[in-house]
Design a protein that fits this description.
Length: about 325
């Protein structure tokens, strides 16, 4: 091989190496887990979209310590976030992670799977069958790219590890000494949603079907489906509700989020029936949502939520 060729190959090899991300020297800062029930913990992430400032981490990973091992729900948005979750788990148990539930397709909830499999290659990854399908059919790549963009490549070393085990509505899974009951509301937050009830703990992990003191994207969901998911969650009479974003609380947080959704939908319907288009009705709808106007995300999402509600009203009339 000529020297020139050698040099060219070396250059090409260097270009093909995975970009070393500055996350390697700059791990996601620790968010201590809060104990919400006898064996259940939640790491409450900061509110907001993934960003450079929050290192892409902004969801609510949870974990349940069973007698046979740890069950993780939503291990976060990236390899580094997942490693942070594992550091918090290690403060409470030395048992291995044996199962992971991913609540839905949005990458801020499940791209941390990579860290779990890196540490525990035999852990099982469970999700809604539609979540698995969408991730395989391009959703995973889209979310990896989106997370990199939003964090200015902080998450560059993250790779998608897609769940392999589908779970369905009303399935009950025993893990160790605990029972995990699955609820899969249709067309709710994302069309790929599961809610996970830890029966012995009277805890419901709602995924993004419920948000607490935060208004988020509903681009992949429906108002009616989200309201139905809230009603289902309320009907379970659990003691603790863990939302996808925001603090854990009682059933009151589910009622409040449902109130936002149903008030907005009803206000849009009223305006729509009066012949108003989505940009004409914004002030009138906002006036009905006074008590939510100071929530983070409200201003960014209002216009989009109104447009989505209009589309949904039109679709329901056909
Ligand atoms: Zn989501």
């Amino acid at each position: 091989m000529t020297r020139f060729k050698q040099l060219a190959y070396t250059l090409i090899a260097a270009l093909l190496l995975p970009a070393s991300s500055y996350a390697d020297d700059n791990p996601v800062r620790d968010y201590p887990a809060q104990k919400i029930a006898a064996h259940t913990y939640v790491i409450h992430g900061p509110l907001g979209q993934p960003s450079v400032e929050n290192q892409g981490f902004m969801n609510n990973p949870g974990f349940v310590i069973t007698k046979d091992g740890v069950v993780v729900i939503d291990p976060g948005s990236s390899l580094e976030a997942g490693r942070m979750v594992l550091r918090q788990i290690a403060k409470h148990t030395s048992l291995p992670v044996i199962d992971v539930f991913d609540t839905h397709i949005h990458g801020d909830h499940w791209l941390g799977n990579q860290a779990i499999i890196e540490a525990y290659p035999n852990a099982k990854l469970l999700a809604h069958p539609q979540m698995i399908r969408e991730a395989q059919e391009g959703g995973a790549a889209t979310w990896i790219a989106q997370m990199n963009t939003l964090t200015n490549n902080y998450t560059a070393s993250t790779q998608a590890v897609i769940p392999t085990i589908p779970v369905v509505d009303e399935q009950s899974i025993q893990i160790g000494d605990m029972h995990f009951h699955i609820y899969a509301p249709e067309n709710a937050h994302s069309g790929t949603d599961i809610m996970i009830e830890v029966v012995e703990e009277s805890v419901l992990f709602t995924g993004d079907n419920v948000l607490n003191n935060y208004i988020g994207r509903l681009d992949d969901g429906t108002f009616k489906g989200s309201i139905a998911a809230c009603n289902r969650a309320i009907g379970l009479h659990d003691k603790h509700y863990v939302p996808g974003h925001g603090q854990t609380g009682s059933v009151a947080i589910v009622r409040r989020y449902r109130d936002y959704l149903s008030t907005l939908y009803a206000a849009v319907k009223e305006q729509y029936d009066a012949g108003k288009s989505d940009f004409e009705m914004k002030d009138a709808v906002a006036a009905k949502l006074q008590k939510f106007r100071n929530l983070p995300g409200f201003t960014e999402q209002l216009g989009k939520h109104i447009s989505l509600a209009v589309l949904e009203i039109e679709a329901n009339q056909q």
